[in-house]
Amino acid sequence: MIMLKSELPSNKNFFWKRLLFLVIFIFVTAVLLEIYQTLKPLPIDLSMTGQEIVVNINDLSWLADETYTLDNKRLNKQTIFETIFSSIDNAEQYILVDMFLFNDGVGLDGTVSRALAKEFSEKLIAKKQANPDVRITVITDPINTVYGGAPNLIFKTMADAGISVIETKLSPLRDSNPLYSGPWRLLFYVFGTRGLTWLPNPFDAQGPAVTLRAWLAIPNFKANHRKVFLADSQGRWLSVIASANPHGGSSNHSNVAWLIKGGFGNEIYKAEMAVARLSGVELLPAPSNLIKDKEVGQNSYAKVTMLTEGKIKTKALELINSVGTTDSIRLAMFYLSDRDIVEALLAGAERGADIKLLLDPNKDAFGYQKNGIPNRPVVGELVEKSGGKIKVRWYDTQGEQFHTKQLLVEKGGMLSVLLGSANYTRRNLDDLNLEADALVTMPTKLPIARVITGRFDKWYNNQEGQYSLDYKSYQDNSFWKYWLYRFQEFSGMSSF
Predict the structure, then answer these.
(1) What Pfam families would the database entry show (predicted)?
(2) 189 and 210 in contact (C-beta within 8 Å)?
């Protein structure tokens, strides 16, 4: 049978049908792939609750970096990296570092108050040269090389000196920004980030140019966000868990840290081995001759627990949900946006707990001006829905950040202090970023407990200096900012 011309299939229609099929196929593939990347199992030994370690109170120190105003002068007191640098000097066998930002890049204003990364690396190199047998490992995040798009000379110098430098492999982690990461993975991931460098460095105004694909890797918003230090000291472990980065642009930030001596270091080593292994390497062996902890007295001890990733949120919610009329919460935080935490704080206020928040106003980021999201809309919600029961003040930042991440809960004569790298956001608490906190629980009557609560009160009430401002100073009840924050928190399309 001979077909008429009008009955023959149209080449043009056939082309568009095939193109439509291809588009649908790509879309469905991207969606299925992204569902997997968002829900896939975590690498082994992440999201960990460590063993509860009993420590002598003499083996525990709370450290703080503070920037504030006194007599019209802006002052910056630092103890965290001074302590770490001294510990490097005293180490004889082993040093392990895991730090998110490890560079001295300058922001839009072009200034660095203190080249912390350079100081840190020089300390490590000097130790390796003085004692070639000391085992030193530095773990860090790909942000320091703009995800492979720019060299980091500090890393190269350390590696040339014999220090093991591990750049964390982020691909095994779950996607935190699935609306972007799905198409990015299909279209750009296979090509890597190296190539023609012609765009400005996004993290260093004076840094080398980077590739377009390096820029395109940024909105995945994945990170090894931990800030951990471990070394031997006089035959024992010395551990530091902090909110601070060795980063020139962050050198004026206010931060907090724990210094813990003794067997707690084994918990850090185990947690960091998980990071090394997901990156395809093993940590250098830990010393086998360190002294075991002695038993501690009944009235001079604290209990310390290592928490990583989502287990930080589990413990924070447990603490907040436990408070009642006679208890108190004191939260000092850089970013507060996680919906479960927000609802728990509101419920705690309804039960009659005394709740005070000291937050960064989210207005400064390395010379750039920010719009106050997420903290300002979150605070507006908390104050309004609690009927003013939740009290809020803003840290008085002037270009730097209130980078602290610390929760204090007083209940039944005990103080629980949870601090470390984790902001209270979905990205930091929902098994997306790599994070490390330590929970310390102790009687409120101990001197160190009074120091910690007293320091919060000093910041909050402007004792011995100007530290904070009242709620109205940055009050922002903008409708569009609130719903923009809610969308960004839910979707992951944000840097917080």
Answers:
(1) PLDc_2 (PF13091)
(2) no
| Residues contacting 398, CB < 8 A, separation 6+ | 67, 69, 74, 364
The domains of the chain are located at 48-279, 301-491
> CA-CA distances (angstroms) from residue 495 to 166, 177, 368?
24, 10, 14
Residue 395's Cα: distance from chain center in Å? 19
Question: Same topology for domains 48-279 and 301-491, yes or no?
Answer: yes
pLDDT, one tens digit per residue, over 411-453 is: 999 999 999 999 999 999 999 999 999 999 999 999 999 999 9
Q: How many residues does the chain have?
A: 496
Name the percent of the chain in helix, strand, coil, to the closest 5.
35, 25, 40
**Maximum distance among all Cα pairs of the chain, rounded to whole angstroms:** 101
Can you read off the two tokens belonging to residue 469? 């401002």
The model's pTM? 0.94
The matching CATH number, chosen from 2.40.50.140, 2.40.128.20, 3.30.870.10, 3.30.70.141, for 48-279 is 3.30.870.10
Architecture of the domain made up of 301-491: 2-Layer Sandwich (3.30)
Q: 109 pLDDT band (50/70/90 cuts)?
A: low
- One-letter amino acid at 197 equals T
Helices (H), 99-193: 116-130, 153-160, 178-187
Beta carbons within 8 Å of 248's beta carbon, 6+ residues apart = 103, 104, 105, 106, 112, 113, 114, 115, 116, 117, 118
* pLDDT score of 294 more than 90: no
The answer to whether 392 and 357 have CB atoms below 8 angstroms apart is: yes
Residue keyed to tokens 């707990």: 353
Cβ burial, residue 141 (10 Å; 0-12/13-18/19+): buried
- pLDDT tens, residue by residue, 376-406: 999 999 999 999 999 999 999 999 999 999 9
- Condensed to tens digits (0 to 9), the pLDDT of residues 174-190 reads 999 999 998 899 889 98
Burial of 49 (C-beta count, 10 Å sphere; 0-12/13-18/19+): middle
**In this predicted structure, what is the pLDDT of residue 9?**
53
What is the token pair recorded at 482?
């609130």
Measured between alpha carbons, how far is 383 from 477 in angstroms, rounded to an integer? 10
